[in-house]
Amino acid sequence: MRKDAPALALPGHLPALGAPQFEKFRRLAYDKFGLNLTDSKHELVAARLGKKLRELKIPTYEAYYDFVVADRSGESLIALIDALSTNHTSFLREASHFEFLSAKVIPSLRRRATIEIWSAPCSTGEEPYSIAITLLEHLGLPPKPGLRIRATDISTKALAIAQRAAYPGDRLASIPLPMIKKYFNAAGNGTFQVANDIRRMVEFERVNLIEPMRSGGRSFPIIFCRNMMIYFDKPTQERVVQNLSQFLEPGGYLLIGHSESLMGVKHSLDYVQPAIYKKPGALA
């Protein structure tokens, strides 16, 4: 069980985040999550962790660091990464990937009993639900073959939002109105909730992609891992790509963000086109 923060009186204003304290948090974030916080992120880290100090009524960054590392439950560490992570996304973001999914991948999977796809990281859920909707436009509802989306993220806060599956209308701006009516329900106050039939196709799980993983025989024809590796240095990017590659079927595709590249990263995948790589072989 997570222990409570020490009940201490806060000063009138927060102290500055000094270079030694910033270095401690930077090292902790890198070692535990692979997050590469450069010097340019100093002010951002100070602002976001300052909110945690106020929330927990801890007077200094040093005391907050000690509190996090002393919490054996790991919950404070997860709260730290939640504070430092950026979870900005929208439905059908980087549309060319969904066009590729429709044109190149779905036709080769139609004879399967079930299609499984992995969204890693899934952030607040827009990506896995976008994947499901794209496939359902081709496979029908209920889908034939069946459909399962594995959706994972390191942030418990993001996963909680994804599981609620209720979004403000502006997040749906890229979705045509007929698809909104088909796959969403109005939830009041300008929000829309993903229909229950769609939500049941997505399984959410907390996963740290930099930690060693074993496939256990499970594999996917396509894995979305977009707009995450820009936060990692080259060695961490290599570790993540190696982790994910073992889960790809022969001929399976790894999709990364259009602002990302695997240039300078050791991997066994073939380049297909910008932001798309393929495992050697052919999809069965």
What's the structural blueprint in terms of helices and strands?
Layout: H1 19-33, H2 42-56, H3 61-70, H4 75-84, H5 95-105, E1 114-119, H6 126-139, E2 146-153, H7 156-164, E3 166-168, H8 177-183, E4 184-188, E5 191-194, H9 196-199, E6 202-206, E7 220-224, H10 234-245, E8 248-255, E9 270-273, E10 276-278
Parallel strand pairs: 1-2, 1-7, 2-6, 7-8
Antiparallel strand pairs: 3-5, 4-5, 8-10, 9-10
Summarize the structure in words.
By secondary structure, the chain is an alpha/beta fold. It folds into 2 domains: 19-84, Chemotaxis receptor methyltransferase CheR, N-terminal domain (Chemotaxis Receptor Methyltransferase Cher, domain 1, Orthogonal Bundle), CATH 1.10.155; 95-278, Rossmann fold, CATH 3.40.50.150. The protein has helices at residues 19-33, 42-56, 61-70, 75-84, 95-105, 126-139, 156-164, 177-183, 196-199, 234-245, and strands spanning 114-119, 146-153, 166-168, 184-188, 191-194, 202-206, 220-224, 248-255, 270-273, 276-278. It has a 7-stranded mixed beta sheet with strand order 6-2-1-7-8-10-9, covered by helices on one side. The longest helix has 15 residues, at 19-33. The chain starts with 18 loop residues before the first helix and ends in a 6-residue tail after the last strand. The model is unreliable at 7-11 (pLDDT under 50).
